[in-house]
Amino acid sequence: MQIYKVGGAVRDRLLGRPVSDVDWLVVGATVEQMQAQGFRPVGADFPVFLHPHTGEEYALARTERKSGRGYGGFTFHASPDVTLEDDLIRRDLTINAMAEDEQGTLYDPYHGKRDLDQRLLRHVSPAFAEDPLRVLRVARFAARYAPLGFKVADETLALMRQIGESGELQALTAERSWKEIERALMESEPQVFIEVLRSCGALEHLMPELAQGADTLAALHQAAQRQQALPVRWACLLRGLEPAAIKALNQRFKAPRECQELAVLVGEFAERADQALAMAPANLLEMLQKFDVYRRPQRFEDFIAACEMAALGPGYPQGEYLRGAAEAARAVDVKPLVEQGLTGQALGEALKGERLKALEAYTAG
């Protein structure tokens, strides 16, 4: 039995980046041997075990064979005769196909260190084209390592284009696709994710609305620079699209509710927010009511943030103006109206009237 550290932990150590998660590969062992040493099995599709003391994942070396469409269309084979090289060749990129033994010796049969030095994201073998999820993964890695100067190798881009043209991208589940999209959006250069998908032709298959629609990558980049939350980044990406296109993208990838709601609201109200300084108090109140700023203040704050990211300039005075308007409306006290005996619809109308007065005073001041 031989144990190796593999994948991202090796890659990031060589890049001088922090290593968070460590994946371990076990060569020459059986399931029974692992269990006899106290490892707990957790893998549903192939043998993965948790270390009895550290809780880290240890996987048996395995090979895979394409047996159907999509990300899950593979048959796995794990046995003691599977070598380190057999296991590493099934991985996506050469920089992810390196291993270290327990003495720290580097094993690099597919020249991942060379590609690290040359700042290239290159596929390990032609089997790369069998897994459509790798198109999104490579684009995500491009977004992560763009600050270090990494590019996707031309031959890998060609394979990614081949996958798109094969129709395999349509076999990806919404959940798997969104997981990659979400992780990519939270990288330091998320716009690179979209640029890579566009350059290999995958964007028109995955997100045709963006392939043909407005270019919002500058706003997305600004959102990343300002360390905005995921809903803000998703809304920045979709800003400028027609409502039907925003709805289609939200549903296709089953985006989280917060992302869906903010994207729709930004699509509907962003242009009005840009004109906020000239907005009539009644229209301002209508916007605040639509956002439910009284019970969900963070959603309105995220909306303003998305508008600020799209402005790209030195400042966005509309943002502070809208924050002040929301604060003025929230400051209206409902207690005096209740003490007057108002209830139900009458109370709602009276409260709305008082908030309108507050906004009239705010806009006049």
UniProtKB/TrEMBL annotation:
Segments forming domain tRNA nucleotidyltransferase/poly(A) polymerase RNA and SrmB- binding: 149-211
Binding site for CTP: G8, R11, R91, R137, R140
Positions bound to ATP: G8, R11, R91, R137, R140
This protein's UniProt keywords: ATP-binding, Magnesium, Metal-binding, Nucleotide-binding, Nucleotidyltransferase, RNA repair, RNA-binding, Transferase, tRNA processing
Poly A polymerase head domain sequence ranges: 4-122
GO terms for MF: transferase activity
The keyword Amino-acid biosynthesis is assigned to this record: no
Catalytic activity: a tRNA with a 3' CCA end + 2 CTP + ATP = a tRNA with a 3' CCACCA end + 3 diphosphate; a tRNA precursor + 2 CTP + ATP = a tRNA with a 3' CCA end + 3 diphosphate
Residues bound to Mg(2+): D21, D23
Broad class of enzyme this protein falls into: transferase
Keyword Transcription regulation: no
Function: Catalyzes the addition and repair of the essential 3'-terminal CCA sequence in tRNAs without using a nucleic acid template. Adds these three nucleotides in the order of C, C, and A to the tRNA nucleotide-73, using CTP and ATP as substrates and producing inorganic pyrophosphate. tRNA 3'-terminal CCA addition is required both for tRNA processing and repair. Also involved in tRNA surveillance by mediating tandem CCA addition to generate a CCACCA at the 3' terminus of unstable tRNAs. While stable tRNAs receive only 3'-terminal CCA, unstable tRNAs are marked with CCACCA and rapidly degraded.
Other information: A single active site specifically recognizes both ATP and CTP and is responsible for their addition.
Name the record gives this protein: CCA-adding enzyme
Organism expressing this protein natively: Pseudomonas fakonensis
